[in-house]
Amino acid sequence: MNFKFHFKSVLLILFFIASNSAYSQKDKPNIVIIYVDDLGYGDIGVNGAIGVKTPYIDTLAENGLNFTDAHCSASTCTPSRYSLLTGSYAFRNNAAILEGDAPLIIDTTKETLPKMLQKAGYTTGVVGKWHLGLGKGKIDWNKRIPLGPKEVGFDYSFLIPATGDRVPCVFLENQKVVGLDLNDPITVSYGTRIEGYPWGFKHPELLKQHTDPYHQGAVINGISRIGYMKGGKDALWVDEDIPFVLSETANGFIEDHKENPFFLYFSLHDIHQPRIANIKFVESSTMGPRGDVIAQMDWCVGQITESLKKANVLENTLIIFTSDNGPILDDGYLDYARELVGEHKPAGIYRGSKYSVYEAGTRMPTIVHWPEKVKPGTSDALLSQVDLYKSLACLVGQDVEKGAAPDSQDFLKSWLGKSKKGREFLLEEAYTYGLRMGNWKYIKPKNKPVPNWIVQKFVDPGFREEVQLFNLEDDPLESNNVYKAYPDIVKVMEAKINEILN
Ligand code: NG6
Ligand code: CA
């Protein structure tokens, strides 16, 4: 009798522990990062877009928190993505824009943001653009690629390997080319021209959009790309279908994992070039292809929120909507974005663009949406995406491994709108470096000519021989260099930036 009683209470206690931890596990919010490519601060309705409507994003902002001074870590893609997933500044690893056959640049022996979330019990997935390299050396595209998202901490992956304007133009699912016929193997080459798909510079008659000389490699689906490619015909993507394929895949991931906490890194191809909208979105803006793909991207965002709603998890999902670098009108494809932009201001009131150290390079449209925990409103806290790693670790109650995420700081309260406190110093990586200290903006001098390929994009990367210092409070446009009037501020910021960089 006594034994029976004991046995029963042990069972009860065990049941209590199990159900309690199951409860707290279930209670953890899902986390979805919607990462748009090349979207500027002013490119969404709620931040003043003209010429294109973004109703789904605006709804997220209405019911969520819209940030006015949140930054990606760099003004180009690979560095920003590297920092987001590793909590480390890109310069520490010389992370720069990668070719489509580059090796993986994330150290797989170290903890990453998705690995940290796996430890906290999350199922993790990445759908969309990767651009962080794959494999260790020369990639064999006809086999499973040995190093990639899996080794970085994603249980599931469905990828555009690099960018839409680079070969190979195929999707990878769990590191294998989707739909590949092994009798038609894939070869990819950067630098040396290989026979295979025709070359853009020789076959302008095949093109849907003409390009500058840098994008005149393999012509696939009427679009010439960077790099050369042969084979894999059955596996080629159709650019016009990419938004549908990615949204459906992301929705499938949500549906499959709705019962337990999941992390989805939904990394869109839009609005990067080539901007080839699906017919459903052609002429949905007054700005030509660039506006049309903004509308298309907004529709993809709507697909995700709809599918979270359908799965009954929208209330307890933390959505972070943002972008990887500032906007650019002419990045090499002649799609008339400059000519058709009209009154629309892709970067809002800010100076600069993609590739630039001025504010528009890194100040991103950023919305946090979590109906259960985040009150709607706006926040001007100075935040960096490099901090998402430690902030999310704090959210899920997970310790960060020693040595991981060296540059990441916990700003969870600010990301959730419970505090307006921002970073004391915020690094902006570009082809030179910027530093924010409150409303002060310091730019490190760079005495080098601007590379030709940047000049041709009508972009000012911010290279100057002298120090630049701006007070964004009364000069948000960074037009009045006041470094001579504030030697003490310059001294403090110079010392800080040197401390960070050395
Ligand atoms: C640049 C490419 C540009 C684009 C960019 C990457 C040239 C001249 N330009 O080097 O086409 O692919 O890299 O964009 O090669 S990003 O958003 O992925 O950083
Ligand atoms: Ca980008």
TrEMBL record:
**Can the keyword Protein biosynthesis be found in this entry's annotation?**
no
Q: Which residues form the signal peptide?
A: 1-24
- Can you name this protein? Sulfatase-like hydrolase/transferase
Identify the keywords attached in UniProt to this record, alphabetized: Hydrolase, Signal
Q: Which InterPro entries match?
A: Alkaline_phosphatase_core_sf, GAG_Ulvan_Degrading_Sulfatases, Sulfatase_CS, Sulfatase_N
The Sulfatase N-terminal domain sits at 29-396
Family the entry assigns? Belongs to the sulfatase family.
Going by the entry's taxonomy, the superkingdom of the source organism is recorded as: Bacteria
Per its UniProt record, what Gene3D superfamilies does this chain match? 3.30.1120.10, Alkaline Phosphatase, subunit A
What Pfam families is this protein classified in?
Sulfatase
> Upper lineage ranks?
Bacteria, Pseudomonadati, Bacteroidota, Flavobacteriia, Flavobacteriales
Q: Which residues form a coiled coil?
A: none
